[in-house]
Amino acid sequence: MKKIVVLGAGRVGKAIAIDLNKNHQVVSVDINDKELEYLIDIHKIEAVHSNLSNPANIRYLIKDADLVISAVPGFMGYETLKTIIESGKNVVDIAFFPEDPFELDDLAKKHNVTAIVDCGVAPGMGNIILGHYHKKIEVQKYECLVGGLPVERVWPYQYKAVFSPIDVIEEYIRPARYVQNGQIFVREALSDAELINFPGVGTLESWNSDGLRTILRTINVPDMIEKTLRYPGAIEYLRVLRESGFFSYDEVDVKGVKIRPIDLTSELLFPIWQLKEGEEDYTIMRIKIEGIENGKKIGYQYDLLDRYDHATKTISMARTTGYTCTAAANLLLENLYSQKGIIPPEYIGVEASNYQFILDYLKDRNVIYNRSAF
Predict the structure, then answer these.
(1) Cα–Cα distance measured from residue 149 to residue 280, given in angstroms and rounded to the nearest whole number
(2) Mean pLDDT throughout 225-229?
């Protein structure tokens, strides 16, 4: 039995801890006692209250760990990962921080560390699938449409934050990169809206988001794009908020007090966006890969429609993100993957056995990607 320290006990962090605790000794760490009490009382998982913004705390907590999971918010992610690597610990990371993880590649190799980054649903599973096909065929086009949404649509936002709300807002302001005809283009987030129909769900709105991340560097494909999915109408009100300055990090003077608009917006929106206990969500993803295989044009499509799990009371986004992470963690724990350095998920998908391991692991937890050819 291996010792695993999970940093962060939000919705996804809890799902990761619970899943890994089935076969390993897990220690969950967070500053929020309420989240930790749930893990202690219901799942008998060891938990530690700690401020993870302090690197010394992290170093102490992980000193005896066989593996570390970083499930902290994005703004803490880079420095947390750096501290873990400097401690010489293998890690699977789902923080989705804005910095370039490859800046830590030399450091990881120096400390003989395997650091799997961006290992969620998207980025994450989409990268694994693309990495698999990039080795098999001449990929010419990659498209990933993905979203996590509440089942019940409630005015005014028809949305609930199914992962860290501050990271949700980042999606609305972080410029989106995509590849067209072999060139990288940058567009503002929320641009190029499209209405797309999904069986079993209905019509959703898609828009450019910055989900390609590491594959812009690691995989050379002429056309690649990732778009986020929301209920129709979402783009308009989000653009109004953004263009009015409500998502700005620049301080403004309000009656002699300096405040960042993003902080006020967060305080106002997060309670409205909070997914209440028992409220259901779903995750939808559609991946299309087109290319040349054995001299012929071929296309593969992967469809995911995952829903809230009533039996375990686990939201879908925690399942789809968390179990991809724990699948990769088990690859490391079972010594099935040993490459050192910064490892984006597309590297894992290259080996057919690892690709199948991930799919089987997810299927065992009823997270099912349906493949079809076109």
Answers:
(1) 9
(2) 97
